[in-house]
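ESCALATION

Customer reports they have been waiting on this structure for their group meeting. Please prioritize. Original submission:
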Amino acid sequence: MEPAPAGFAQAREQFLAMVEAIHPQLHRYCARLTGSVIEGEDIVQDTLAKAFYALSMMPEVPPLRPWLFRIAHNAALDFLKRHGTKYTEARDDLDDTIGFEDRADPAVVRAALSRFLVLPVSQRSAVILKDVLGHSLDDAAATMSTTVPAVKAALVRGRARLRDAAPAPAALDASRRADLDRYAALFNAGDWDGVRALIGEDCRLDLVSKSQRRGKAVGLYFTNYEKQAVRLAVAELDGELVLAATTPGQDRPSYVIRLDWEDGRVHQIRDFRYVSYIADEAAIAAR
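Update from on-call: job pushed to the front of the queue and completed.
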């Protein structure tokens, strides 16, 4: 394979530095729209890829925050439409603006990610933008391509429904738990031959927001971990079992790793160590 020109990597790093401060805000928005920190990050990565390409054809840089949020909103809607169980829409009567308050609802700010899925998408988006992220009504309307009265109506209904919603318990996969326990035990024991034996020949590695590898090139990933004192433990994240990674000197997980299995072997690794804000954002429960 021919290596990519050095200029590509340099331009990408410059772009990521430009959007670094906005990146976690985009994730807070997308994670709540999807009810999942991992799916939310997928949408953020898609957003940044689209923005990077679009920016290369622009004569000047647009105001980054509103521009990126509009791209993220549209990318999230496309994702939700492909996953129909998470996409519902409702028309809010503009009379619903009666009782609107401009200040954020504290119960909304504290709500768990999965709770937002009870809301139709317009209400979900309005509540997240206004109450969780502190956007103005004008900015929220611009992101959603709608009007301020429509945002107010969505907020009134969305806030009320969210306060009344009860989270549904998720069923966890016992066989997945056994696979992750085995992987974590070998990893923590430093049995790297044993860990590598669990990896499929065509395994895909995604060091999210950093690099991707496949097949034999995945081996270097474990070589790097051999030099680090990272501990793994099985944990629950958004109703799914993952591996929570704790680094030396920390008393809580620093990031998560998601493994996909096929015929008893790992066929995909998604390591979120370079987007550690996910651990800060997520409710990671030991299992």
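Sent to customer with the following note: The beta strands are 199-207, 211-214, 231-237, 240-246, 255-262, 265-271, 285-286.
Escalation resolved.
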